[in-house]
């Protein structure tokens, strides 16, 4: 039971988002790390992401029952009271707001709340179910965590912060489209209007290529604008070119194998680049 309750917060999603929060924090810090601020930024971010995931589980329970990947979740199996889940999610959210308000600043808290509202209300309740553009809106929500970390340090939005947001936003589109292709049977069963379902796999592959190209260019802006050094620039080029190469393989390889490989590499590239941009000041 405890394990299932723990899984309601979707720990994998929390970990991925905390990597991006840390990336933004370290990029803004430039080596001068406020450990106490970092701890509370991570804690507050983890709690609000956990709250969003718990409430998303509540909202998505009817969808989860129709998907092979999710049909064994507690709410999908009706093995926990819905009211408990709502209270659980709200408590996590309130704790997060208090921590971010007391220990960071209003700007970081504002970004956290904006991402929360987009994900829980706009995306989960409506766009995910009703629009092929749900992925785009989800990408906006997913690109906000690095801004939470960044603004916790410098308490302002500048060109560097905007580029950081663009990098994480553009990255998420091919990442999620690859998932949608790999799990297309589930999305069809649950009647979720993702791009492969509505427009076809061929159209989706073309869109993935466009976004990967945009990501590769956008990613270089940090170095071009002088925010990171040549090590980051070189690694960005190499990994970007390889991601483009993988994308092109999709036009002649097995779709299931290719989409899973694209998904896996999308995780690798964002982790590696997040790490490099976090420590680039030392290179």
Number of domains: 2
**Helices and strands, in N-to-C order?**
HHHHHHHHHHHHHH
CATH architecture of the largest domain: Orthogonal Bundle
Radius of gyration: 19 Å
Q: What's the tally of helices?
A: 14
Top CATH class of the largest domain: Mainly Alpha
> Overall mean pLDDT score?
93
How large a portion of the residues is in β-strands, by DSSP E? Answer: under 5%
Structural class: mainly alpha
pLDDT < 50 stretches = none
Q: Biggest sheet, in brief?
A: none
Task: State the total count of DSSP E strands.
Answer: 0
End-to-end span in angstroms?
46 Å
Percent of residues in helices comes to over 70%
CATH topology of the largest domain: Tetracycline Repressor, domain 2
At the fourth level of CATH, the homologous superfamily of the largest domain is UbiA prenyltransferase
Structural shape: flat
